[in-house]
Amino acid sequence: MIYRRVLVKLSGEMLGPRGSGFDKESASAAAAEFKEASGKGAQVAVLLGGGNIVRARDFAGIDRLSADYMGMTATVVNALGFKSLLEQAGVPSVVMSALNLSGVTEEISPARAVRHLEAGSLVIFAGGTGSPFFTTDTAAALRALEIGADALLKATRVDGVYDSDPEKNPNARLFEKELTFKEASEMGLGVMDRTAFALLEGSSLPAVVFNFLRKGSLARVLSGEDVGTKIF
Description:
Number of strands: 11
Helix content: 25-40%
Order of helices and strands: EHEHEEHEHEEEEHHEHE
CATH architecture: 3-Layer(aba) Sandwich
Number of domains: 1
Largest sheet: 9 strands, mixed
Strand order of the largest sheet: 4-3-5-2-1-6-10-11-9
Distance between the termini: 18 Å
């Protein structure tokens, strides 16, 4: 095992197509990947997005503050549904939210999150950073640092980091295996937002961008196989 503790950034669109809501079939497939990964011995936390339900930029005419809180609330909906499916699959899980939802989720506490991880539970972080104007990429970087993760794993629909969007450009070039933060910055690669990138680079926390839709890929990353692109 190459990683002792990781945080996985999982977009809401892995739990249902954009704007479709929480899709049990998609979410169950995602839960199965985490169940397989749980057998690799690493402590695993996951931070969920909410793009399958709402995204701030989808709301023309709604002020940014309200839209961001709508998006953060959507991640809580995803977290509660995902927790249920994980536990049905035999993976003990805890939801911790940056939004105050006493009685529904636990309040985020890095120390308590670590205790849950050490006790064998998967920790699901919801509510983003709890503040508007920050993306879930930034929230993922923040939580990864707070729990002392060895790496941030960014689960995507593509095989790693490309020089352009491979879903739009069939000639996009994949950066295989490794890439430095400096190289990614100089090339202006849209791996994640600038704040998240700065947090990771400043703390020397590596990130691995990989294709979550390839069955078994999360478990392979945890086993140390060359999957996706590692940024360090």
